[in-house]
Amino acid sequence: MEFQSPLARARGLGSAHHGATHWWRERISALLLLPTGLWFAVSLARLPDVTTEAASDWVASPVNALLLIVYVVAACYHAALGIRVIMEDYITRRPLRMTAILFANGTLLTAALFSVYAVLHIALGT
Amino acid sequence: MTTRGRNAHPTRLDQRGIRGEDGNSLPRSGDGVGWTEPALPRTTATIRAPLTRPQLPLMRQRPLSPHLQAYRLPGTALLSISHRISGVVLTVGTVLGSVLLLALAFDQNAFEQLRDAIATPIGRGALWLWLYAFLFHLCHGVRHLLWDIGWGFERERMQRYVILELVGSVLLLFVVFVTSQILT
């Protein structure tokens, strides 16, 4: 039997204990992005002078495909976390802020899923 | 709750009798437009809210803490806001990059068109700007990681790191350029 009101319970419990989760995940993804990002930067710099076949072959090689997937997922996740912080800081109106964050998260999730799908499609040759 | 701006017509204020009824209200400047701050006693140091205009509702007349314009903008602060701006640029680029990958997987003509667009001078400029934004964001990110382990808060180090980051990111850009040229 619960005699406490939800508010009283929330007050008694204090912190939800995942206040640092967002911060921590931002750091983990940042650490992942350090090596994969540098590798990606070098690869991206070659893009203007590459033929379609060469680009496809490059993505199709297993090491590149794996690194690319790790990079894209980490980058989109890190971006979603960072964009959220920026929006929380600068958008004062709460409904607009929540809408903007949802939109950003949705866009980045879609981008990550599509990218992974595209890489797998090239790498597995289906 | 009505908030009238600076350019509220003075005669309306007169009609409402806001002006000149007590010691706190404001005299009007000569041309009859805008406001003059009330003269303060010169002998006392008074901390005053920047907004003392009586036409603002009482809630808005509370003293404000100094905001951006009150502070010097040191290098660290400039890099901090650049970190955010570059983060937004990188996010947009990442979303566009997924379009590129999709094109490579499913529509080779579209990929070739996109690649040719990137190969134009403007395209190359945008690409290298994005790469520089990436490397700068990475350098400042490393500093954030160092801050997280409690390192680098001393004043001289803060200043030195501003230079170090800028030089480091340009250096990295050079390394990326050379490496990509060798590999191509």
The CATH topology annotation of chain A reads as 3 helical TM bundles of succinate and fumarate reductases
Shape of chain A: elongated
Largest interface: A-B, 40 and 40 residues
Q: The CATH topology of the largest domain in chain B is what?
A: 3 helical TM bundles of succinate and fumarate reductases
> Approximately what portion of the residues of chain B adopt beta-strand conformation?
under 5%
Largest sheet of chain B: none
Low-confidence stretches of chain B: 1-32
Main structural class of chain B? mainly alpha
- Total beta strand runs of chain A: 0
Secondary-structure element pattern of chain B, one letter each: HHHHH
Overall 3D shape of chain B: extended
Query: Please, how many helices of chain A?
Result: 5
Question: Could you characterize the architecture of this molecule?
Answer:
The complex is a heterodimer of chains A (126) and B (184). Helices cover 81% and strands 0% of the residues of chain A. The model of chain A has no long low-confidence stretch (mean pLDDT 92). Chain A has five helices and no strands. Chain A has one domain: Fumarate reductase/succinate dehydrogenase, transmembrane subunit (3 helical TM bundles of succinate and fumarate reductases), CATH 1.20.1300.10. The longest helix of chain A has 31 residues. By secondary structure, chain A is mainly α. Chain B is mainly alpha-helical and 184 residues long. Chain B folds into two domains: 62 residues, no CATH class; 110 residues, Fumarate reductase/succinate dehydrogenase, transmembrane subunit (3 helical TM bundles of succinate and fumarate reductases, Up-down Bundle), CATH 1.20.1300. In chain B, helix 2 runs antiparallel to helix 3, helix 3 crosses helix 4 and helix 4 packs across helix 5. The longest helix of chain B has 32 residues. The interface between A and B is large, with 40 and 40 residues.
